[in-house]
User: Fold this.
Amino acid sequence: MTRVSLLGIPHDENSSYLKGAAAAPALIRRELGSDAYSSWSETGFDVAADLLDHGDIDFSGDGDPWERIETEVGRTLDAGHPLISLGGDHAIAWPVLRAVRQRHRKLTIVQIDAHPDIYDVYQGNKRSHTSSFARILEEGLADRLIQIGLRTLNDELRDQLERFGVEVIEARHFSEDLRLDLKTPVYLSVDLDGLDPACAPGVSHREPGGLTTRQVIGLIQSIDQPIIAADVVEYNPNQDVSNLTALVAAKLVKEIAGTMIKINGAA
Ligand code: MN
Ligand code: MN
Assistant:
């Protein structure tokens, strides 16, 4: 039986505007475990029964948090199951992908986001959550990066996207029948601000004009390559309304896990 590992990464020190995402993992877990909701994915798997929860990474000690993330994600991956990590802000994707790439020679990143997170540096911070994908591509941590839902581009960011050869599907060009031509295993990175703030208000940078929850679920369910690992990041409970965004995050976790089990289990 295919199981899915879960790992909390409660870290938001590299958020540029608002802190809060460090509190996300516990709140998303609460919705995942709530008796109010079905534990099944739409695709027919009792996901709650298949989740193997490795708890949260502990950042209380000394040492570089980036090294700790890389080590702990590596250890979790070595348990042999696909992994869903709960952020934290999007900065964590860099050390997470270091661990993933070490174990996977072929990798395509599918990123859902309002922002490309590809500034060379932001506010003097190379680890900023607005720069993580510049670091990821500089280090060659993926063969391909596909970003979906962008709606915050400026000239500098367009130059960066071109320089790194990123494949971009801006929100204004999104269509329901979008099918990604995937040829390698996938790392799926879900920044909750890729969704419209009407669907997911609990984020640090609300950007109107985003994808609906239904469209993001459709994208997840359309992935036809094994999903090695995924993250769900940027949930900021301080900005949420009635825990709605935590519930959306939990729903996406269930659908990602359901897709992992379906594809990886059949492989
Ligand atoms: Mn992001
Ligand atoms: Mn974003």
Remarks:
- The domain at 4-266 is CATH 3.40.800.10 (Arginase; Chain A).
- The chain has one domain: 4-266.
- The pocket of manganese (II) ion (ligand 1) is lined by residues 90, 113, 115, 117, 191, 234 (CB under 6 Å).
- The chain has a mean pLDDT of 96.
